[in-house]
Amino acid sequence: MELTPRTGPDSGAEGEALASKRIRSKRNRLPALAMIVVLLVVGSFVVVNALGSATTFYRNVDEAAAQRETLGLTRFRLQGTVVAGSIVQTGEGVSFDVAYNGVEIPVDHVGDPPEMFKANEAVLLEGNFDASGSGTFDSNLMIIKHSEVYKEKEADRLQQADMGGKVPVVTSVPGTTP
Amino acid sequence: MIPQTPTEVTGPASTGSRATRVLGLLALVALGVLVLFGLILSPADASQGESVRIMYVHVPSATVAYIGCFLTTLGSIIYLWRKSRWWELVAYAGAEVATLFTVITLVTGMLWGRPTWGVYWVWDARLTSTAMLLLLLLGYLAVRRLPADYEVRAKRAAIVGLLLVPNVMIVRKSVDWWRTLHQKPTLLSNGLDSKIEGLMLFSLFTGFIAISLVFGWLIVHRFRLAWLEEQVESEGLDIAIAERRAEALIGEVAP
């Protein structure tokens, strides 16, 4: 515990100094407050801008198809649902179609797809349209976009058993049916 | 001027009490029930498999982290308005426990993200705003520890504390406002029944109960500890002032 001075002959002067310091600190409060307000405004501007760029975190298949000309060879994230029956293993990865809002784009993915990759799942693909102009999307990074729907595995099996073992095609993501 | 000390307001005498021992016991029992339902009784998810079980800790942890942030902002407002030390310490306890649960949220989320999404982390709006929340909480704790008088430190920290609830609101709404990899809320949305099935919903419910009890226990204990620390410090100050007064009076003639 720091408490100096223990005995002060000049404690009166010290008291005056303290009092004037208090007045000064009150006068200094305004610029400090102004500074905080400015920092807050600038800070929130930066934050909103940074998060705002997340609006283009991905482009849906239909949007990407419409913007193909302007996008050119620009790298972006493409979001769509893997079309059932379109998955083909290639030498260096996998090729398939993605669909959204009734539009489909063929994809050439280089690299091993994640474990959760399967038909009718939504995926994010990072890459660009093929330079050849064929409209194929060349991707080398795939992220599975999981929906907010949770289904019990056992219940799923029971449902399948009810249908005589036929696996029903679940289209829980909008835009999977063209 | 006599400095205001916490002794003027009645507060806890120790970190434990009968009520908190019961609370602690309930929390342990609830954690046991959560383990039972989360790991054994509830089924695997049809598409995620076993990793869905992480949700039973992840979602409640995020929720109590938000509650902790709310306590901090509320405590900060009341401190700035009324200069209440009690509320300042509530704000402090809230921030520390919220930091813990934000870290748990981020770690469990990353562990779930790797097998499900295929990546630990992406800079989407939900994940970015949560990372910002953690930084803000750490900032609050750091500012409160910068060496200065108690009033100065408390005031600075309270100003940072005001930002926590707005940040929480951004985190909450990020999945609605922007396109994110993170899924939209399953709970508190329309058509709950079709989005999560019976036993999984119940397991998540036990998760909310267990994590809330742990959160409550931690908040109460962290608050009491901070209160007692405060008291020890101000008691030491009172004694030191009394000693110096006594010394000063020796050489003086009483008026």
Describe the structure.
The complex is a heterodimer of chains A (178) and B (255). Chain A has helices spanning 11-52, 61-66, 68-71, 153-162; strands at residues 59-60, 76-82, 88-89, 93-100, 103-110, 122-129, 137-145. Chain A is α+β, with helices and mostly antiparallel strands. Chain A has 2 domains: 15-51; 58-150, OB fold (Dihydrolipoamide Acetyltransferase, E2P). Chain A is elongated. The model of chain A is unreliable at 8-12 and 167-178 (pLDDT under 50). With 255 residues, chain B is mainly alpha-helical. Chain B has helices at 18-41, 55-82, 85-116, 125-145, 150-161, 164-177, 192-195, 198-250. The longest helix of chain B is centred in the C-terminal third of the chain and has 53 residues, at 198-250. The model of chain B is unreliable at 1-7 (pLDDT under 50). The chains are: A alpha+beta (178), B mainly alpha (255).
Main traits of this protein?
heterodimer; A: alpha+beta; OB fold (Dihydrolipoamide Acetyltransferase, E2P); five-stranded mixed beta barrel; 7 strands; B: 255 residues; mainly alpha; 8 helices; disordered N terminus
In short:
The complex is a heterodimer of chains A (178) and B (255). Chain A has 178 residues and is an alpha+beta fold.
Radius of gyration of chain B: 23 Å
> Could you name the CATH homologous superfamily of the largest domain in chain A?
Nucleic acid-binding proteins
The biggest chain-chain interface is: A-B, 38 and 49 residues
Secondary-structure-based class of chain A equals alpha+beta
**Global geometry of chain A:** elongated
- Unreliable stretches covering 5 or more consecutive residues of chain B: 1-7
Subcellular location (chain B): Membrane
Family (chain B): Belongs to the CcmC/CycZ/HelC family.
Transmembrane segments (chain B): 22-44, 64-82, 89-112, 118-142, 154-171, 199-220
GO molecular function (chain B): heme binding; heme transmembrane transporter activity
